[in-house]
Amino acid sequence: MELSQRKEKILAAVVEHYIRTGEPVGSKTLLSALDITVSSATIRNEMAELAALGYLEQPHTSAGRIPTNEGYRYYVDNLMGVRPLDESVKRQIEAGVSLKNASPEAILAKASEFLADMTDCAAVSTTPSGENATIKRIEFVPVGTRTGMIVLLTSTGVIKSKVCRSDVDLNSSMIEKFYNIVKASFIGLPLDEIDTATLQTLVASMGADALTMIPFVSAVSELAQEAMRTMVMLGGQSNILRYREDYGTTAYELMDFLRRGEPISQLLANSKADFDVKIGGENKFKQLENSSVIMAHYNIDGDNRGSIGIIGPTRIDYASLIPSVRYLTDLVGELLTQTLNEE
Amino acid sequence: MELSQRKEKILAAVVEHYIRTGEPVGSKTLLSALDITVSSATIRNEMAELAALGYLEQPHTSAGRIPTNEGYRYYVDNLMGVRPLDESVKRQIEAGVSLKNASPEAILAKASEFLADMTDCAAVSTTPSGENATIKRIEFVPVGTRTGMIVLLTSTGVIKSKVCRSDVDLNSSMIEKFYNIVKASFIGLPLDEIDTATLQTLVASMGADALTMIPFVSAVSELAQEAMRTMVMLGGQSNILRYREDYGTTAYELMDFLRRGEPISQLLANSKADFDVKIGGENKFKQLENSSVIMAHYNIDGDNRGSIGIIGPTRIDYASLIPSVRYLTDLVGELLTQTLNEE
DNA sequence: GTTAGCACTCTTTTGTCGCGAGTGCTAACT
DNA sequence: AGTTAGCACTCGCGACAAAAGAGTGCTAAC
User: Fold this and answer.
1) CB–CB of B192/B228 below 8 Å?
2) Among candidates B138, B260, B204, which has minimal Cα distance to A142?
C-alpha cells in the first residue's frame, strides 16, 4: 500500500508524537508539530483516510488519533529515519558490554541487564546454540575421595563443567577406564546424538564396569545437554511496571511470560532476518499483544547463533532503540566470537 | 502490653479476616465470624480500645478497622496458632527442593523459585557464606593450547571453577610452576586473606615468571572471591503484581530493590534468631515499608550459613506461611549439608 | 459490664450538567 | 479537484449534588 507523501508525513508525526506523549493526537496539535502549510481541516481529512486504511484509530469519537499496529508497522518499514547512532551512545554501549575473561552466560546476562537499563524495557537474550557442535575434549579432575569435576569442551568453544559423585572411592584405574570410554565413545560425537538410547547401549556394552561408571557417563551426557541447550537471560523485568498503563491488564501475564525461558527462546529463534521487529499481535503469543519486540541476532564465526532483544509497549521508541539493539548485538557477537575462539 | 482474652480474640479475628479479604472489617462482620455471645456494640467498644492502643486503625471514619503493623506484630508473637504443617504440604515441599547432584547455587535457585510459586510471594535466598573457609585444593585442567580451567575446592566443600587464558602457549613446565605457587601460597589460606595486597607481594616475589603466571594467579584470587561472596537468588518477582494494590506506589521501588542483591543479603543477614518476621517498617529499608518479610536460616554442619525468605504485603498469611518457610529452609539445610560433605 | 438505639460521619455510587477537544460534513473558494 | 472555513455534533471528563450504605461513637437503659 503506497501512501501519498503528505499522508506519510502525517502518519509519521502521529506515531512520533504518540510515542513521546502517550496521548491521542488531534489535528491541531499535529498542525503545530508539522511544518506544513495546510489547515487543520485538511489534516482531518487526511487522518480520516488514514483511519479508513487502518493505520490510525480513535479510542473514542471525540479524541485524537493513535496509531494501529499496522500504523506502527508502516512507520517502521517506510518512514522511520535511520539516523546513525550517536558516538556517545556507541561508547556507552561499548562500556556496557565489555567483560573480559567471562563465560558466554555471564556476558549475555550482563548485556541483558545493561540493555534493560539503557532502554527502560525488559531485555532478553539467548546463549549460543550448540546444535551443530561436537564434543572436542573431556577432562576429569578429582576433587575429593569420591568426588570429581568433569569438564567438557565443545567444538564451538563452549566449556561446561559439573561436579560428579561416585558410589565408591576413586582410584586411578577407574579414572583410566573413564578416559577410555570417553575416547572411544564421546570425542567427536555431535552433542545431539547423546540421548538416553545411546547411553543405554553404551552402558550395556561396559559389562561389569557399568555400575561404577554410570555416574560419570551420565554426567557427561548431562553436560552435553547443557552445552546444547540455549539458556534465556533476562534483565529489567521491573521496567514493565514503568509502562504499566500501556500493557493494561496483560502486565502480569507479560511478567509471567518472561519467567518461562522456553517461549522466549521460541520467540527469538523464530525470525531469520538479521534483525526483526514484532509489533503487538504479530507474534503468536497472546501475552505479548500489547507489546513490541525488537530483536537482533548475533553471529559467531559468521554463523547465526543467538539473539538479543527488548520487549516494551507498542509505543516503544523504535527509531532510536532499533539501532541501539543492533549495535549492541553486533558487539556481543564479536566479543563472543573472540571468547570462544581463544584457546 | 497484655490484652484481655476477649480483645485478643477480636484482634486475631480482625487480622485473619483482613488477611483473607483485604477489606477493612467492621463490627457486624466480626460478630458473625466470632463465636462469641456479645453484641456488635460491645465489639465496637473493644475495637475502639484496640485502636487507642495502636493495634488497629481506620482508613477513614466510616470504614471498618484494619490492623496496624503493631497489630500484626502482636498477632504473630502471641495469637497466631502454630498448627503443624499438613502432611501433604510437607510432601509437596520435599518434592519442590529435591535436586540431586546439583550445585548449592542451583539448589537455592530452585528452592526460591519453588517457594515463590507456592506462596505467591517473591522469594529470596542467599548462598552459603564462605567467610571462615580456607582453600583446600586447586587443580588446573588444560582445555586448549592457551586455555585452561582452574578448579578451586574450599574447606566447606564449595567447588568453583573458571576458565582462564594465558598469553603464551601452555606447556608442562608452566603448569608445574603453577602448582608450586599454589602449594606454597594458597593451600590452607583463609579465603578472606586473598586480597590485592597479598597478590601483589606474591607476584613481586615470582620475579621473571610473574608475567606468564599472572592470569593464573589472579584467576585463583577471583575464584576465592567468588567462593566467599554470598549470592542472592531471586524468584517470583512477578508475584509482586499480584498484590499490587497492597504495595501501593512502592511496587516499582520494591521490584527494583529485589534486583540489587546487596541490600537483600543485608536484610537476610541482619537477624540472628532461627527465623524472623519483619513487618512493614520494622526493617530499615524504606522500599519495604508496605511489605513483610518472613525469613529463616539454614544450617550446614550445625552452623548458620545462609537464609531463605519470602517478601509479601503486610497482610501476608503469616500463620500458614511461616511454618512452610521454616520447613523448606530446614530441608534445604539438610540437602546442602549432604551435598557439601560428600567427597 | 453489656446492649439497643440513634444520630453522625464519611465513602461510594449514581445522575446530571457543562465544558472542551476533536471530529465529520457541507458549502464556498482557489 | 483539492483546500479551507464554519458549524453542528459526539463523546469523555470533571464538578457537583443527592442518595445509599456502611460503620462508628455515644447515650441511656438493662
Assistant:
1) yes
2) B138
Residue contact B143–A139, C-beta within 8 A? yes
Cell of A275: 534483525
In angstroms, the separation between the Cα of residue B223 and the nearest Cα of chain A is 12
In whole angstroms, give the CA distance from residue A243 to residue A256: 16
B-interface mutation test, from A103, A110, A137, A143, most B Cβ less than 10 A away = A143
For chain A, give the mean pLDDT.
91
B29-46 confidence digits (pLDDT tens): 998 888 878 899 999 999
Q: Which of B60, B58, B70, B223 is nearest to B135 (CA)?
A: B223
Distance B245 CA to C14 C1' (A): 25
Q: Rounded to whole angstroms, how far apart are CA atoms A295 and B207?
A: 50
Please give the pLDDT value at position A341: 85
This prediction has a pTM of: 0.92
Per DSSP, the residues of B173-189 read HHHHHHHHHHHHHTTT-
Cβ distance B146 to A258 less than 8 Å, yes or no, reads no
Within 8 A of A145 by CB-CB distance, chain B residues are 343
| pLDDT higher than 80, residue B334 | yes
By C1' distance from the Cα of B52, the closest nucleotide is: D25
Distance CA B3, CA A104 (A): 60
Rounded-to-integer distance, Cα B77 and Cα B72, Å: 8
Asked whether the beta carbons of A252 and B238 are under 8 A apart, the reply is yes
- Choose the mutation target among A137, A187, A343 for the interface with B, i.e. most B CBs under 10 Å: A343
Is the model more confident about A82 or about A141? Answer: A141
CA distance B59 to B65: 7
* Backbone phi, psi, residue B77, to 5°: -75, -35
Q: Which helix H or strand E contains A56, and what residues bound it?
A: strand A56-57
Neighbours of B165 (CB within 10 A): 17
Helix (H) or strand (E) holding B298: strand B291-300
Q: Using a CB–CB cutoff of 8 Å, tell me whether A10 touches chain B.
A: no
Find out whether B11 and B3 touch, Cβ atoms under 8 Å: yes
* CA A247/CA A234 separation, integer angstroms: 19
Q: Which long-range contacts (CB under 8 A, 24 or more apart) does B54-60 make?
A: B55/B11, B56/B11, B56/B14, B58/B24, B59/B24
Distance of CA A134 to the CA centre of its chain: 24
Determine the residue type at B149.
Answer: M
Given a contact cutoff of 8 angstroms between Cβ atoms, the answer to whether A308 and A109 are in contact is no
Helix (H, G, I), strand (E, B) or coil at B291: strand
Does the distance separating the beta carbons of A258 and B145 come in below 8 Å? no
Task: Record the cell numbers describing residue A119, joined without a space.
Answer: 532502554
Predicted confidence (pLDDT) per residue in A27-57, tens digit? 999 988 887 788 999 999 999 999 999 999 9
Distance A40 CA to C19 C1' (A): 22
pLDDT tens string B78-112: 999 888 999 999 999 999 998 887 899 999 999 99
Is the Cβ–Cβ distance between A29 and A13 less than 8 Å?
no
Q: Which residue of A has its CA nearest to B138?
A: A143
